[in-house]
Target: TPT-domain-containing protein
Amino acid sequence: MAPHGEKMNATAEEQVQMLDVREEKDSQGDLLPSPVSAPSPRTGAGSNGNKPKISAAMIIPVWIVLSSAVIIYNNYLYNTLEFRFPVFLVTWHLTFAAIGTRVLQRTTHLVDGARDVNMSKDMFLRSILPIGLLFSGSLILSNTAYLYLSVAYIQMLKAFTPVAILLISWTFRIQEPSKRLAVIVFMISSGVALASHGELRFNLIGFLTQAAAVAFEASRLVMIQILLHGLKMDPLVSLHYYAPVCALINLAVLPFTEGLAPFYEVLRIGPLILLSNALVAFLLNIAAVFLVGAGSGLVLTLAGVFKDILLITGSVLIFGAQITPLQVLGYSVALVGLVLYKTAGSK
Model:
């Protein structure tokens, strides 16, 4: 969720990334099989045809605004209001999402895709639960990183996620390496390394935390491909199943990490802050349902790049984050590698 420090953003944002990977696989057989569950414009998702269509020109700006708002709002909570309880905030977002998807299921067609998922006990234990564990780890770690690192630097580190997916896939022989992908991996890795070297407020704990978050998230995306065998779930349907599982996992972790302190702090910042914060994150996931079917993978990749550039700029203007010319150069190299990764697979 990028702060839940970043995330309920994760569900929405990674659906875009997963759509990119699936389309690359379609166009070139040696690429990573889709680690995603978002339905493509070609395949649809059963009863999702009842959903109204929104043009890319309308939904992409909405998605960019909401995605950026989630990250900036969470960073504001953590570092300006000093509500430094990422496990609690993630748990609250997931609880809100679990309730919200069920309300939508009963009042709209937005979660009709859940009817197409045959959720057996065996599937839950073998697939949903282990993926939920990885999702919880990713959310907690990615949000914790915002306590140590700037929004700008975290966005730069997140550019390494496609590389992590490929490295895991190569390690477990899900796909074979290619020279072209190796060059792109080197380009993205070099760009992220340059950005890290140029970071003025580098914090080792924050860096390792975000690196672990990337590893958890990449593992989750690969596990979706392995365990769910191409099952189609859009962002809200995924949230419908994963949010309750992850909320319970996080709730079990909460007493051992943050205890009762966040509950007292809620009284200080006010419940309306938390309610509006969770609502913005939930609206992002609704926007993502329309986003994944609104444009090609390349269009969505470029929209994500534009969003990240805006976030970095906003981090500098709003929170006074400092970025160096070396970071600009490194992040530019990483973004070029990311776009090449998409365009090469689309040829």
In short: Confidence is low (pLDDT under 50) at residues 1-5, 19-48. The chain has 13 helices and no strands.
